[in-house]
Amino acid sequence: MAGASMKDIKLRIKSVESTMQITKAMELVASSKLRKAKERQERCRPYFMGLKQTLESIETATNDFSSPYQQQREIKKRCLIVIAGDRGLAGGYNSNVFKSVQPMLEEGSVCVLPIGKRTVDFFARNGIEILTTEFAEAASVSVSDCFTISNLITKGYLNGQYDEVSVVYTRFVSMLTQTPAHDVLLPLEKLEGKAETGVRQLVLYEPSPSAVYDAIVPNYIAGMIFGAMCESVASELGARRTAMDAASKNADEIIENLNLQYNRARQGAITQEITEIVAGAEQS
Questions:
Q1: Which of 22, 64, 102, 218 has an alpha carbon within 20 to 30 A of 263's alpha carbon?
Q2: N-term to C-term CA, the chain
Q3: Coil, strand or helix at 71
Q4: Between 209-283 and 2-60, two packed helices, what is the crossing angle to 10 degrees?
Q5: Rounded to whole angstroms, what are the CA distances from 274 to 2, 148, 173, 281?
Q6: What is the DSSP string of 182-216?
Q7: How is the beta sheet containing 164-172 ordered, strand by strand?
Q8: What gap in Å lies between CA 178 and CA 37, rounded to an integer?
Q9: How many Cβ atoms sit within 10 Å of the Cβ of residue 77?
Q10: 159-164 long-range CB contacts below 8 Å, 24 or more apart?
Q11: d(Cα 209, Cα 59) in Å, to the nearest integer?
């Protein structure tokens, strides 16, 4: 009986060791990808910040500026771009995003553009209107796809399909901390009270300041979406690294306890064998 128990413990130790090798490998992969995700975001940020500054300069340098992208109207329907992961094993990364978006779904009419397989599954399961599933795989969404998404949602906003566009994602704070975030993309905020004063440089926009502004907005929105994608990817990798690190530590503790059980069982078997030998010698 003791021998069979020892064999079972040995098999379980090998099984947990194999699992720990996988979790450690996933932790290393997540750490490597995380560095690349942060570098990609840093490389693209100056371009989109330049677009934002251009929009602000056009608005502040033009008297009585107006744009359909700034028009405040009664919100009858919202469009949510929700970014989550393609798979699990990342702690509470996906569930935290879905929890944060739940109150918005209860506020009124909503349509969703999901990014990530888990996101598509969640909204399809809850019967929420899905704008498109073309970007269902978050891992394959590129900068070009962000421009496509931006053109799609800005066209729908101008056509009156929805009155507000927001992106729901996870903001990367640190390796250990990632928080759900919600940013309104449209309508754009007016820079009231921030007009330029004093001598201003005269800039001629053709065909008009509003036309140039409206042409830049989709590119700026694409930058906002790409920034949210980078934050979400970094957050998912950070959450997965933390989860795999915790799993590896738990596996190590289990192995330590199993080794202790194995040694006790082995010691018990040896003691029993010695007792049987002594008893046999006494009888003879």
A1: 22
A2: 26
A3: coil
A4: 170
A5: 14, 77, 61, 11
A6: EEEEESPPP-TT----SS------SS-HHHHHHHH
A7: 129-130, 109-115, 77-83, 164-172, 178-186
A8: 15
A9: 15
A10: 161/77, 161/79, 161/111, 162/77, 162/78, 162/79, 162/111, 163/73, 163/74, 163/75, 163/76, 163/77, 163/78, 164/75, 164/78, 164/79
A11: 8
- Show pLDDT as tens, one digit a residue, over the chain (284 residues): 445 477 888 888 888 888 888 888 887 887 778 778 777 767 777 777 787 788 888 887 777 788 899 888 899 999 999 999 888 778 788 999 999 999 888 888 999 999 999 999 999 999 999 999 999 888 888 889 999 999 999 999 999 999 999 999 998 887 778 899 999 999 998 876 555 555 556 677 778 888 888 898 999 999 889 888 988 888 888 888 888 888 888 888 888 888 888 888 888 777 877 777 777 666 66
Pairing of strands 178-186, 164-172: antiparallel
How distant is the alpha carbon of residue 53 from its chain centre? 27
What is the model's pTM? 0.80
Instruction: List b or e across 116-136, with b for residues whose CB sees 16 or more CB atoms inside 10 angstroms.
Output: bbbbbebbeeeebeebeeebb
**What does 131-142 look like in DSSP terms, one character per residue?**
S--TT--GGG--
Which tokens is 40 given?
């990609």
